[in-house]
Specification:
It contains 10 helices and 8 strands. With 275 residues, it is α/β, with parallel strands linked by helices. Helix 2 packs across helix 10. The protein is globular, with a radius of gyration of 19 Å.
Length: 275
């Protein structure tokens, strides 16, 4: 199966009332677990590589790894670099083979973001690469702001989307110091769904509960970038089996199977959450 276009994958999922799951891949172990989950569920996913974990010399390695896993899958699978924050990294990633970028605009001034994203989008679209932008939070703030979801905010955001010509718009879901569990601002999400001409994305930095996931998908979330460290889950599972049965440790292939199985199980759970 050829590598999928993220916009097509997302739009197709929306037609069937689902959202697409995006999972971070750092090595072959995680890749094989994700592959197993895709085969078991027959659901497309997005393979993400975090730019913060990649040195400039390794874009080709990680792009090649993600593309290899994607091409093995029986359904379309996307390949995306996340948390890109400058034009040089964007160009390097695109030239290395990434077919989508997520640009982090949460730490810069509005005008600076418009300039940067416009520049990246122009280059990316010439190469048939999609651009997703992370701009804001969708969580309920600790101190509610009366004007947070007013027309001025939406107009400003809409103008950003139209001016930069981005393909997807992402929002953080995180906890606050006063709330252990994330509280989604559903009013804001509904207004975004009604106003924005591009698919909406949820960046999970707090555990997404089933009831919350269902409501977010209903209100327009088309893609969820999961925070789980699949590599950590993989290593933890291997360590548990090593502690319980030292004989298994003498068989590396058995340890590989055990870790791979845990990654597949976790990805399966997330995909069920979105279906």
């Amino acid at each position: 199966m050829s590598i999928g276009n993220i916009l097509e994958i997302v739009r197709n999922a929306r037609k069937h009332g689902r959202a697409v799951g995006a999972f971070e891949i750092n090595g072959l172990e995680e890749g094989l677990g994700i592959y197993d989950a895709v085969v078991a569920t027959n659901q497309p996913v997005i393979l993400q590589v975090n730019n913060q974990n990649v040195g400039a010399a390794f874009y080709q390695f990680y792009a090649g790894l993600a593309r290899l896993v994607a091409e093995l899958c029986p359904v379309p699978v996307g390949v995306q670099l996340t948390y890109c924050s400058n034009f040089e990294d964007a160009v390097s990633a695109i030239n290395a083979g990434f077919l989508s970028l997520m640009v982090d605009c949460t730490k810069s001034a509005w005008e600076d973001n418009i300039k940067l994203v416009t520049e990246i989008v122009k280059y990316a679209h010439r190469k048939d690469v999609t651009v997703e932008v992370l701009l804001d939070s969708i969580s309920v703030p600790e101190e509610p702001m009366i004007n947070e979801t007013d027309e001025r905010y939406l107009d400003r955001l809409l103008q950003f989307v139209l001016d930069t010509k981005i393909d997807l718009l992402a929002f953080l879901l995180n906890t606050t110091t006063k709330m252990d569990e994330p509280q989604v601002n559903y009013l804001k999400l509904q207004q975004l769904q009604e106003t924005m001409p591009v698919p909406l994305v949820l960046v999970e930095r707090a555990q997404l509960k089933p009831v919350v996931a269902k409501q977010c998908i209903k209100l327009g979330i088309a893609k969820v970038n999961f925070m789980d460290s699949l590599l950590e889950e993989y290593l933890n599972q291997v360590f548990v089996y090593y502690q319980n049965d030292h004989q298994i440790a003498s068989l590396p292939q058995e340890l590989l199977k055990i870790g791979r199985s845990r990654v597949a199980e976790l990805v399966n759970q997330k995909l069920i959450l979105l279906s």
